[in-house]
Amino acid sequence: MVRLEPQTVDLDRWPALEAPSGPGGQSAVEVAQALRRSAREIGLRIDYPDSTAAGEYDAPARVVLRDPERFWARLASSGVLGLGESYMAGEWTTTDLGAVIGILAPWIAGNPDCAHPGERAFGRDGRATPGGGRRRGGPVAVELEDSVPGALTSLYTDETMSTGGAVFASGARTRVRMDDGTDVVHLEAPASPPRRNDLGDAQRRSVDTLLTLAGVGAGSRALVVTPGWGEVPMRAAERGAHVRTMTASTERLSALGSRFAAAGLRDEITLFLGGPADARGSVDAVVAVDPGVTAGVAGYLEVVDTAERLLVDGGRLAISGVVSAERPRPAVVELAAWGSRYVSDAGPVVSWTELAAAVERSPRLRLLGRIEATAHHAETVRLWSETFALRGRDAAALGFDAVYRRMWAFHLAALEAGLRRGWLESVQAVATAKTTLNRREVTPRS
């Protein structure tokens, strides 16, 4: 029999996790019966508290239910959002969270007896409220940075504190010229599963790849519009570039200043409080990592506007981010409802089509191509999850309670599931500024 430990939730801190009243009605019963019948077909093992089970013993994924009634009630009333909240509340557990999300999220999204809050919020195609990011009174209001505390970031990343996808040393590369004239370089999965001590070098390799796409080198003027926790501007400065970067957070400003000083790069990097719209002058390169993580489509548009305004003729824009191949899958739309409540209000991830269109609409920019490194990003997130799980006590000591830790574990697992299932792609895209005659100042689009 599975050993079940009691779980407690501080409802003053997590009011949305209050248990649904009652057993959930007929819809919950129908969801429970349907999943029991479907378990074998979808590759799921379900263990119940009374020692009964559904699905094959050696199924690819296994769910251990601690509180079946609340689990079914949340799925019926809140769908995939309820799946995440039920996990946060400790009503079910598993040894492979990403695999379970990869199986259950699409099943729930396609079940008519489960609620679909993602579809209600974002539309069937995930774009009823484009990107979540809004331009409030002008371009200055677009927020490109995540609000994840540095203390939390340090608990799951490596010494670089990079939160983008890494590029590991192994993995074949293939190049294809597309009909539109752009080049696509595909990175195959690493030859063997990377280890945690591989992550730092892999993150530096990823940053170097992005900077090379942007043409950042000795003497070049580079604007890093999303500094993260400092690795991108630092690597650019180490190449001999004159780097400018900014942040809207006073906390991050202080942390970045300290890190640049510790690395002996304070004079090589100009750091200021503000956003991309505050940047002036001309640059040879604009670099951004995950500009849509908070603002969605509007974040990418802000970066394109900045590049259009500041790049010299022949300068380059390089963007790294997670996108969906086409329109977001129903599972992604529903997971976005959970993410919007607990992680970011950006909504479903931007599609590659939307990102490419944002560049193509610019009168000055021309898309050159992209690098696809989805398999490497999936391995990156796997290592983050492993590291975060090992540092549970450190997280607790920093004030992240058990519910918060399960929330972040669910977030990382959902990202890994999306990358491994083909719902999401990890790309580095590059565009160049066209040569223009009698160029005049370009102002941001409102």
TrEMBL record:
One Pfam family of this chain: CMAS
Region described as Disordered: 1-27
Superkingdom in the source lineage: Bacteria
Protein name: Cyclopropane fatty acid synthase
